[in-house]
Amino acid sequence: MDVYGLLGNPVKHSLSPPMHEAAYDELGIDARYVTFEPPVDAAREAVEAAETLGVSGLNVTIPFKQDVLNAVAVDDLAERIGAVNTIDFSGDQPTGHNTDAIGAVRALTRHGVALSGQAVVVGAGGAGRAIAFGLADEGMDVAIANRTVETAHALAEEVPGASGHGLDSLDSLLADADVLVNATSVGMDEDRSPVPATALHADLAVLDAVYSPIETRLLREAAAAGATTVDGAWMLLFQGVEAFERWSGQDAPVEEMNEALRERL
Fold this sequence. Notes:
Elements: E1 2-7, H1 16-27, E2 31-36, H2 43-53, E3 57-60, E4 73-74, H3 76-81, E5 86-88, E6 95-97, H4 100-110, E7 118-122, H5 126-137, E8 141-146, H6 149-158, E9 163-166, H7 170-175, E10 179-182, E11 205-208, H8 217-224, E12 228-230, H9 232-248, H10 254-264
Parallel strand pairs: 1-2, 1-3, 4-6, 7-8, 7-10, 8-9, 10-11, 11-12
Antiparallel strand pairs: 3-5, 5-6
Helix pairs in contact: 1-9, 1-10, 4-5, 4-9, 9-10
């Protein structure tokens, strides 16, 4: 039996186990997906222990995404993003990858969104970094809007062709934008949106990385404006799909994984 898992602290309420185990069941793979919750200062030791015990792959979440960078061989995208959320133990040494970027890309393309033209990413934290790099790699012109404008400028200097802005620029940025992504936590704990409703329009595709609640205020207002909407569970799903496919070498049963995920939301 192969063992995969999630490294984080805390991880008790993770949605990853049912999603991955639905894939194992569908494809008849003899595997289990479990959670590991080491002390917050023990990232390297946890990776070394997993390798010693024969764990086949790990997902990585808060607070370890940066801490494991020095414990694995990091691929180009994860190095540019500065965070690892997937570790593969199949080679001579553990390799670190970041599937958050491709999770956002696949969530958008799953809904028929063409990744061309102008994208606006709200937020310059971990999720914002990954999404900005992912959309830029697809060829989009990325504008990063953040509450602290200096942080937006700093990230824009790293992302090819990107520009940094304050949140007060959203009205003008969105006027000609094709894709909008909320990469902040605004909308998770209260019914608020980081984007003025008046800036939304029917030519936008809007992805909200928040997945609880599924329908955020931003998505409600975007739908009312006629925009294409993509909820955050799709991004969560496809970062898991990408990890599964990397580990297994098989196409993931996306529909079954999606059903298992949404049953827990």
